[in-house]
Amino acid sequence: MHKPLAFLFGLILCVSSAAVGAAPRDEGFQVRVPVANQSSGEREEAVREAFKLLLVRLSGQRGIVEEESVAEILERSSRYVQRFRYDTTDAGLQLNVHFDSATVTQALERYEIPVWRNDRPPVLIWLAVDGGSDRMLVGAHEHGAVRLPLAGAARELGVSLLFPLLDLEDLAEVGFSDVWGGFTDNIRQASTRYGNPIVVVGRVHQQRGHWVGRWQILNRSSGAAWHSDGRDLDQSLQAAVETLAQRLVPEYTAVPRRLSVADTLLVEIQGYRGCGSIERWSITSVSRAACKTFSCKPCAATRRLSACRWMGTLIVCCRLCVATGACRRCTSQIRARWTTYWSAHPQSWQICWMTKSSASGGKATASV
Question: How far apart are CA 161 and CA 135, in angstroms?
Fold first, then answer.
C-alpha cells in the first residue's frame, strides 16, 4: 500500500479584472464627438463629453455619469487622454479621442465602477418588424434602416449584437411567423450555429401612431420579457436596447481588479506515486459560457510555464509546486478551492498531463 503523494498546482489568473475578466479591451477606448472649433476650451469640454460616453459604453448604464462616485473621475477626464485628432466629416468637425486603457482601468478600479466583463457572450437578435404594408425579418445583411440604428444604440451601451445570416440554413428553421408568434423551439435550434449567445426575440409594429415592441431573452427564466414604445421605430428600438442592457448589467459587469494573491486557484491532486517530471499539461474549462483549452510547457530552469491565453485572459506565472509528476497508470482525485468571485461561480475543469517517463506518450485526465 503506497502512501498517497499530494502536490499543488498554483494558477495565478492575471486578468486585469483578475478573476472576473472585467478589464475593457483597448479597441473600446476611442470616442468621437462633434466640436465647433479647435480651441483649447472647446476641446476640453469635448473631452469631458467623450469620457462620459466612454463610461456609458464600458458600464452599460447611461445613469452612471450622474452618480457621485463618478464626479471626481469626470473632473480628471483630460488626464486619461492618450491622443486625439480632428476630423472633418459631412456632419462637421469631429474630435476623435483615444483614451489610455490602462489608466482608465486603474481609475475604474479605484472608484469601484463596474464595467462589462470580457467573457460576456454576444447577443443574437431575431427581430420581426411589421410596418403595415411591409413585413420583414432583420438579418445581418438586409434591412439596414432597421439594423443599423439598433446596432448603434447597442454600441453606445457596450452591448455586442449579432444578427442572423438569414441564409437557406436559417430560413429552413425560422420564418417571419416563428419570430412574430414566439415559436421559441425553432429559434433556439437555429441559434445553435452561432455558438452560445444570449438569444433575444423581438417583434415591433405600429399601434396608434407609436411603434410598440415585445422582447424576450430566451436564455433567462426570470425577468426575461419586456416591452418597448416610441414615437418612431428608432426610438422604440433604442428603448428596447436600454432595457436589454439593464437586464444584462447585473450578471455581466464587475469592478476591474489587478492581480492579487487572492486570485490564485489551488488544485490539490492526490494519489500519485511519482513517475518523473511533467513534460506538458493542459487545462480545459468546461463552463456554460465556453469550452476553451490552453496548453503549457514548463521551463526546466525556472519551472515556470509559458504564457497562454484562455478566454481572453492572459495566464502567466503558472508554477509547478513540486518536481515530481503524474503517471498515466495512477488514479487521481482532484479538489479545487476557488477564491473571490469564482467561489460563487463554480466551473468545471479537466486537467490533462503527460510525463517524460511515459514511453508510450500516454496521458491521464481528471476533473475538478
Answer: 22
Residue ranges of the chain with per-residue pLDDT less than 70 = 1-27, 220-223, 258-368
Taking the model in full, what pTM does it have?
0.66
Location of C-alpha cell 447611461:
62
User: CB pairs under 8 A, 24+ apart, for 343-351?
Assistant: 347/285, 347/286, 347/287, 348/285, 348/286, 348/287, 349/267, 349/283, 349/284, 349/285, 349/286, 350/283, 350/284, 350/286, 351/9, 351/267, 351/269, 351/281, 351/282, 351/283, 351/284
The rounded distance, in Å, linking the Cα atoms of 366 and 368 is 7
Q: Which amino acid is at 160?
A: S
The CB-side HSE value for 24 (13 A sphere, CA atoms) comes to: 31
pLDDT given at position 142: 85
Q: What is the dihedral of CA 316, 249, 154, 82, to 10 degrees?
A: -50
Q: What domain range includes position 10?
A: 5-20+257-367
Question: What angle, rounded to 10 degrees, do the helices at 40-59 and 144-156 form?
Answer: 100
Tally the domains of the chain. Answer: 3
**Confidence (pLDDT) at 213:** 97
Confidence at residue 223, expressed as pLDDT on a 0 to 100 scale: 56
Whether residue 96 sits in one domain with residue 160? no
Beta-carbon contacts of residue 141 (< 8 Å; ≥ 6 apart): 165, 166
User: Are residue 240 and residue 285 in the same domain, yes or no?
Assistant: no
